[in-house]
Amino acid sequence: MATTQRIEAFAPASCANLNCGFDILGFALETPGDTVIIQKAQHKNVIIKKITGDAGKLPLNPDKNTASVAVKYLLKKLNIKCGIEITIHKNMPLESGLGSSAASSVAAIYALNNLLELGLSKMELIQYAMMGETVASGEAHADNIAPSMLGGFILIRSYTPLDIIQLPTPKDLYYTIVHPNISINTKEARSILRHNVALKDVITQTANLGGLISGLYLNDYALIGRSLNDVIIEPVRALLMPYFNEVKDVALNSGALGFGISGSGPSLFTLNKSKDSALVVAERMINVFNKYRIKCMSYSAKINTTGAVS
Question: What is the number of domains present in the chain?
Fold first, then answer.
């Protein structure tokens, strides 16, 4: 019988798609991330006590919040009758393309597993955390959930059945994330995508996907860089983002291995071979947005290989 009454967990933000891996690739960030506190209660309901850092934008209704939806799903599936109170501390911008909703779900499920001493592995927990994503995007995606839970680079080979593969992380690989202060809705960003694509584009995209995964295994930074190319999703979503091509050119000309849209945007990411390179690239990308009076936040660090912690 569990004796702990309260558990706090942190789950990192994540960068999904990685250009050529739409809905199937992602990696975990060192920062930012969400902290969730799960606490036992005398009542038998799941409630959200408080949310901070969201400027009052996120729902307290437990049927509409990603963290509580995931918690309710796990309790129902395992037939656990237990009152749970949830406190969420958001430490990243909303609708940022950084897996904000996923981080809350992951932190909540990871904390609940520890609180109730369920003994489930991180891999087993992913299926429960995914259910929170149905609130955010309408579908149970794992490309943000899996890296946030496990850390490192993740490939989702299949959703039915769920088959998740952890990929290696080259030791000198750094990311840069630049988040411009503009809003892009995840559902809207998905709705504009083409449902039919040319065979030649599929061939190019799958070749780049194979090249990127090979580059991670081989520690081949040049191969990683030239494989970060998206001929299907980026040309459409780039239209939603002001000054996209200018920022991309600056990033690549400043030494980034590759450049792309993080998730559905508006955050943009680069991969870099050193910390110094990541910082230079971030500064020059921000300078472009500043020129047009668009404020930004940026994050540069090594890939997070730990994932959720408590």
Answer: 2
pLDDT tens digits for range 46-77: 999 999 999 889 999 999 999 999 999 999 99
In a domain, 259, yes or no: yes
What single string gives the DSSP state of each residue in 31-78? EEEEEEEEEEESSSSEEEEEEESSTT-S---TTTSHHHHHHHHHHHHT
Q: Is 133 a residue of the active site?
A: yes
The total of other beta-carbon atoms located within 10 Å of residue 121's CB is: 10
Per the domain annotation, does 25 fall within a domain? yes
Whether 186 is catalytic: yes
Nearest Cα to 147, choosing from 119, 166, 128?
A: 166
pTM over 0.85: yes
Domain boundary at 124, 140, 167, which? 167
| Torsions phi, psi for 278 (to 5 deg) | -60, -40
Give yes or no: residues 147 and 254 share one domain: no
Domain membership of residue 254 as a residue range: 174-302
Alpha-helix runs per DSSP H in the chain: 66-77, 100-115, 122-130, 133-137, 145-150, 186-191, 199-218, 221-227, 234-237, 244-253, 275-291
- Please report which helix (H) or strand (E) contains residue 299, including its range: strand 296-302
Among candidate residues 30, 85, 95, 133, the one labeled active-site is 133
Asked if 41 and 21 sit in the same domain, the reply is yes
**Which one is catalytic: 85, 186, 234, 270?**
186
> CA 273 from chain center: how many Å?
21
| 235 and 159 belong to one structural domain | no
Q: Rounded to 5 degrees, what angle do the CA atoms 180, 226, 253 make? A: 50
HSE-up of 135 (CA within 13 Å, CB side)? 25
The candidate with the shortest Cα–Cα distance to 134, out of 38, 219, 68, is 68
> What confidence tens digit (pLDDT) does each residue in 96-147 have?
999 999 999 999 999 999 999 999 999 999 999 999 887 766 677 899 999 9
* DSSP-derived pairing of the beta strands 25-41 and 6-16: antiparallel
> With 70 as the cut, is the pLDDT of residue 206 above it?
yes
